[in-house]
């Protein structure tokens, strides 16, 4: 096994923990403990449980680090400072806005549901720092990739099972999913596949995140002497998965992702004939899947494009207008979380964040995503200067490229929905963020 190649026991444990968190977020639904309490997830229990055990062990060792731990912390120092700064700003914005909203604006009160926002921050912090702490060499990354592909294979099979309702599975699995969205799958017109997620739109954007890695690898890491058929087939399967969700926003996000990566690859590979063939093949694959999509797919697509009649668009605009009205009453610091007195259904994450934390909080929220984006671009440019244009990406460069390519699509998605407050989707995206920070470590061995 891979841990026989000089990998430390602690690194092995962290890798297994990351894999379990990843598979839990991909496959497992949350489970309720009590009607008055929020549902729990396996990945949350593991993250907070292991953190508590580590804290106890640290106290037992009299708050001292071993020489090996000190060496690992020094390797992560630059990235840890940045992560601490961003999360510190998020928490500071949270505290200031809530004190201002409750104490000065007298807007409601502060309760348990508002405290859970801090718990959410801390969960993402643990996911990112866990991913950063792992020493990824070739064996670990290959193992992580294989497990992820196995999880994707399960989701593809499970989703097609939903589509055809094999063995009446849509009825059997009803208790494990959000009833509102599960009814969309069974009784909807048209019915929409939602995988293991509780919302087809979130499952749709998950496929976009997956495509970002596969497509970047297809253009930048596949050997040029032969066409990457396996990656090509996998791209087709994932695109079709998004079509089954009939998520219009995710469909646009895929188009945006493909345009960005194709233009990037075209100039990176110096307009070579081979990259043109790959672009043409991707275009034809997308068109074939598009024109052979179901009538339900085109019905929902046409309904969304008719803004005057679309109930979805009209509902979004109505909720945006109500939220924007409250923003202008407190634009700088917002109103705090206020989950008891203000609806959390806004369907636009920028408006939701601004209403809670003002324009100051919105700037911090954007920085949380944009800082690794900017650093990733700078790192890729530096590597290109060293290796030259046209050189194949190593695995860490593919991870950086995937994040850079997909973030514009994520920002578009947040106009109609949001990623930060969806615990499952953001957990998986936090792993992507952690992999970006890991790839930026100065002493990271290229995997």
How would you explain this protein's 3D organization?
It is a single chain. With about 450 residues, the protein is an all-alpha fold. The chain has one domain. The protein contains 16 helices and no strands. Helix 1 packs across helix 4 and helix 8 packs antiparallel against helix 9. It is globular, with a radius of gyration of 22 Å. The protein starts with 8 loop residues before the first helix and ends in an 8-residue tail after the last helix.
Write the layout of secondary structure elements.
Blueprint: H1 9-27, H2 42-60, H3 67-104, H4 112-133, H5 138-164, H6 169-172, H7 179-187, H8 200-220, H9 229-245, H10 248-268, H11 273-291, H12 295-305, H13 311-327, H14 349-387, H15 395-416, H16 423-439
Helix pairs in contact: 1-2, 1-4, 1-5, 1-16, 3-4, 3-14, 4-16, 5-9, 8-9, 8-10, 8-15, 9-11, 10-15, 13-14, 14-15, 15-16
Key features of this structure:
single chain, 447 residues, mainly alpha
Low-pLDDT regions: 1-7, 443-447
Taking the sheet with the most strands, its summary is:
none
Overall tally of domains: 1
Distance between the termini: 18 Å
Shape: globular
The beta-strand count equals 0
Helix content: over 70%
Average of per-residue pLDDT values:
88
> Which secondary-structure class do the elements indicate?
mainly alpha
**Count of helical stretches:** 16
String of helices and strands = HHHHHHHHHHHHHHHH
Strand content: under 5%
Radius of gyration, CA atoms, in whole angstroms: 22 Å
